[in-house]
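ERR on first pass: missing label on line 2. Operator R.T. fixed the label and resubmitted. Corrected input:
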Amino acid sequence: MNENVLGIIAGLLTSGSMIPQLVKVIKEKNADDLSSGMLIVLISGVSLWIWYGFLKDELPIILTNAFSVVVNVTLLIYCLIYKNK
Amino acid sequence: MNENVLGIIAGLLTSGSMIPQLVKVIKEKNADDLSSGMLIVLISGVSLWIWYGFLKDELPIILTNAFSVVVNVTLLIYCLIYKNK
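pass 2 clean. output:
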């Protein structure tokens, strides 16, 4: 299989696995299941993967981790909003 | 920064972010917060990243995703055990 296609599929699966969590938080307006500390660790790691992707010039890593940052930052924002209520 | 060191740190942060979840499940003997479907998607994605790592011959990707498979397969096993009770 083409490496880039493989990387994009891999990245969609790993980034996409957080989407049901995001949908659940938005629907239930409740983020008690989530740890904001864990999300901050995850966002840091994903951001470093983007940096790694730039150093290695690997588009699948950059694109899918950028998507993951968007999903997880959104989760973190909801987490902070709902926990302050 | 050395690319391999960067990749290992990035991978430890992203893989490690699931460990608090694992500890919580083991302590509380409860996996109601977890979706086994989500874990299967995540494990599939992480396994494809390992394949990608082998194709590109990138050790940080192989090692950190292998660690992630171990953590998430353990979570899935606990998930299946506790949900059948």
